[in-house]
Amino acid sequence: MEPKSKAAAASCFLVMSLLCSCVIGDDQMETNNQGLSYNYYEKTCPKVEEIVRSSLSSMFILDPSSPAALLRLMFHDCQVQGCDASILIEPSGDNHQFTEIDSVKNFGIRKRDLIGVIKTSLETECPKQVSCSDIIILAAREAVSLTGGPLIPVPLGRKDTLSTPSKHVADSHLPPSTADVDSILSLFDGKGMTIEESVAIMGSHTLGVTHCNNVLSRFDNANATSENMDPHFQTFLRVVCPEFSPSSKAAEATFVPNDQTSLIFDTAYYDDAIAGRGNLRIDSEIGADPRTRPFVEAFAADQNRFFNAFSSAFVKLSSYKVLTGSDGVVRSVCDKVD
Length: 338
Hints:
This is Peroxidase. By secondary structure, this protein is mainly α. It folds into two domains: about 180 residues, Peroxidase, domain 1 (Orthogonal Bundle), CATH 1.10.520.10; about 120 residues, Peroxidase, domain 2 (Orthogonal Bundle), CATH 1.10.420.
């Protein structure tokens, strides 16, 4: 849900910026065990973080939905063969071969072009030094920080992939909109996260919206009424998302905010999860399952605990199966393989 004017958008951004806090754990100042480093660009491109932030600040004022889009972009890139900027690759050649972005589970992915804009600025400052995959991570980090969340120290040094994964690979690796607690905990456990970190990383749903074609899938489930869903909220979803076909353009274009403050990175998502006001199945179940509810309640009551757990989970996700050294490349253009 966007502000009705640029002035309102700018006002919202200023509030977000004032809310920003910085979380730096003692164990985050060391070199990452995946071969990444917290001072990787100290000599080769010392202004990289400054350039990324300045590039995004004005865009976030003009389009307050951008932070949620960039955070989702990072998640979807890192879920498919690791954080390697493969989601940015466009098809090439005369014969269109479906690439990762063509996966139905990547519906609604936006702002990939922003990574290219930032890349252009960095190529001027320090040619062939900063990878597109590092830019994705830094952009997602800024998306969290500039909307009121923690400024997360992230290790850098990722390289970009030379391969172009197919849509089928993305289809098999990205979680469906119907994912439950079991599948989400298993997914993040595979990336080295604790249950607390898994619940924290789900807090990214505090930003942005959910498209109605994903909400409607819940109503197809015969057991939907047994989920942790407030009856009044279920009525609200059915009004906002009427029973279109899941493939309908109307269902794809209609959406509901993820929580009451969908432009601000805060703990409102957890308040809604406890109350049964989750848009997706996981958003409802996470507030009721005995494995996850204690952390949902803890985060709802203590923003600092949420920010610390989210920061830890963010670093683990962004370090998953990264390419470093000679295993990858630094692309000169983000949407093509050199």
